[in-house]
Amino acid sequence: MKNKLVLLFLGCTVLGFAQKKNTKNAVTIKPKSEFVAELLSKMTLDEKLGQLNLPTSGDITTGQANSSDVAKKIAEGKVGGLFNIKSVQKIREVQKIAVEKSRLKIPLIFGMDVIHGYETTFPIPLGLSCTWDMGLIERSAQIAAQEASADGINWTFSPMVDVSRDPRWGRVSEGSGEDPYLGSQIAKAMVNGYQQHDLTKNNSIMACVKHFALYGAPEGGRDYNTVDMSHIRMFNDYFPPYKAAVDAGVGSVMASFNEIDGIPATGNKWLMTDVLRKQWGFKGFVVTDFTGIPEMIEHGMGDLQAVSALSLNAGVEMDMVGEGFFGTLKKSLDEKKVTIETIDNAVKLILEAKYDLGLFQDPYKYCDANRAKTEIFTASSRKEARSISAQSLVLLKNQGQVLPLKKSGTIALIGPLADAKENMPGTWSVATKMENAISLLAGIKEVAGSSTKVLYAKGSNLDYDETFETNATMFGKTLHRDGRSKEELLAEALKVANQSDVIVAALGESAEMSGESSSRTNLEIPQAQKDLLNALLKTGKPVVLVLFDGRPLVIKEENETVPAILNVWFAGSEAGYAIADVLFGDVNPSGKLTSTFPRSVGQLPIYYAHKNTGRPLSNTEGKFEKFRSNYIDERNEPLFPFGFGLSYTSFEYSNLKISSDKMNANGKLKVTVDVANTGNYDGKETVQLYIRDLVGSVTRPVRELKNFQKIALKKGEKQTVTFDITVEDLKFYNSDLQFVAEPGQFDIFVGGNSNADKKVSFELTK
């Protein structure tokens, strides 16, 4: 500590900062605004532009930091932060260059894609959202921050809060599904988990909400593609989770790759300044996505100098990897295409973030080697991850109560995902040590115990096409492709299956079949696995489909033929244990879908909060009607609706009541409903409340999620659940983009999914 104080004292002396010592000899510095203004006044233009530059860590390795190209730039004051560098030792080496060798000794920030955990990995965000438990979600982010900060990281490019209603888009796996209300609650929980309302703590990290904005709605579901929608849809359906993160105090925002109103988000002043700063009051800084600035050249927005100036003037402060700011803004300043005031404001926001993180007080705040040894991938964190992961799994079907399995007899575990620990953490698990992940085979063997015989066969490869499998198993997430013929693989699987009492088929996507740049046009299980599953069904043995996926899949055929389906997403480093806990009934499944499962890819995009047409279907059986809004070859409704999820027990809703049938703008209504556990197991149920605004100045959705509660009920227990409704629950953006609640009639629906049929009504009066 003494060395740190001397270092800080020397740095502050060079800058001429006034400082004082308190009674405990701890160095303090001036208040933020004064400190940052004084530092800014001493910076050269190159040093200012350096603060806006965020390169990747490049060739820096432990013990060689001083000789790297990036290190040279750091020493010259040309770098504001680094990302994708980890470990206390490496980060300390690099930080030392910044605070000892650069002229002004400004510390760096260190960012990383800590998306759903660090080394202790939680379910992919789409799976995590299916817990519908904000406490658990916040806790997962808190553990991630604890581990990442212990390894030197102080900034995460998370949460990703893009609403998406088209699962062809691979990054649906990284978000929280289709609903703006639920997405907003999760955005707040994640920001609070990472930042813990106090960035001065050494175990909190700065969050970065992304991708601003509308990234989840690309045409054709193709990543990076054009997004085009009305402003009224932006504000009502897609903007709320970003705003919720801003309201929660998120420290930074990342720009999206797509265009908005014909201008890429990275250079869109209406988005970054008018909406984000002026309307929402955001006070932090905006960073581009990877090479977001130079990518605007391909969008047709000009050369590197032009797009860099466009981005800065739009309200973007930090350039990730593109080096357009550092390379061109000096020339643009000379040519009066940008102003020094705009540059200074951008630098000020970066310096303020570093101040808030406590890096000026102690640049080595996140470089405690003891924390790195004792706070990462701990037994307690893994235990929590196992519990949280189990609650993310969604039981889609359980005909004949095939589940839970008995801890006796013989189980045949078959499928390319059965012994695939490298795939369990899922996409965007960059800090995970894959060798520590738990496969389904290992998990079942341990949880089942010695009284159960577990037989295993791979059964098939991921896909018949080896090239496809290679593209779907990148970043070390191999499935160890089997070189035997499909006939040999199937014969082995059938031999194992015929010796069993029950078959568990571990099928679906590999981890990298979803995620960034993993868009798909065919959302079915690959044909090689379909053929395997159909052969297993012909044995006559009961089959449980354990479905791995990073998005809603088209499983219409499987739903018709397989008696039990457990959707397990990619449940993280403890996946094998968590899935086994649910399969054997040690944990009763309680996950609920946050993204609609289509019957056919031709229905996409599909979501529950759609609007009515002037010609809706008049029947509820899905029968085709000419000159009505329907398909000639498919039903309108999805296979599984938003909010759906079964349990090993059953829940009964009754006695839905509302405190009054009228409410004024200052009033409040109470809605109550009785929920009873009528089955044979203790369980958890997510009680969901939806509202329909029957008449509006603009068309309104058929229903919108407005509240929910996840409750635990013992077998035979009944509970009265209460919801409060205020005028805030009724507001929406009208055609003038005013956030209003309009007097009129409203219906309230309460139940276990978005098809809830218990209904009460009320009138909002003037």
What order do the helices and strands come in, and which of them pair?
Layout: H1 2-15, E1 20-21, E2 27-28, H2 32-41, H3 45-51, E3 53-54, H4 69-75, E4 81-83, H5 88-101, E5 109-112, H6 125-129, H7 134-150, E6 155-156, H8 180-195, E7 208-212, H9 231-238, H10 240-247, E8 252-255, E9 259-260, E10 263-264, H11 269-279, E11 285-287, H12 295-299, H13 304-314, E12 319-320, H14 324-334, H15 340-356, H16 369-374, H17 379-390, E13 394-398, E14 409-414, H18 440-448, E15 452-457, H19 466-471, H20 486-497, E16 502-508, H21 527-537, E17 543-548, H22 556-561, E18 564-567, H23 575-583, E19 651-658, E20 662-663, E21 669-677, E22 683-693, E23 704-713, E24 718-725, E25 732-733, E26 739-740, E27 744-751, E28 758-764
Question: Could you explain the architecture of this structure?
Answer:
With 766 residues, the protein is of the alpha/beta class. It has 4 domains: 106 residues, no CATH class; 242 residues, TIM Barrel, CATH 3.20.20; 223 residues, Rossmann fold (3-Layer(aba) Sandwich); 116 residues, Immunoglobulin-like. The chain has 23 helices and 28 strands. The strands form 9 sheets. Strands 13-18-17-16-14-15 form a 6-stranded mixed β-sheet, sandwiched between helices. Strands 20-28-27-22-23 form a 5-stranded mixed β-sheet, with no helix packed on it. It has a 3-stranded parallel β-sheet with strand order 4-5-6, with no helix packed on it. Helix 21 links the parallel strand 16 and strand 17. The protein is globular and about 75 Å long. The chain starts with a helix and ends with a strand.
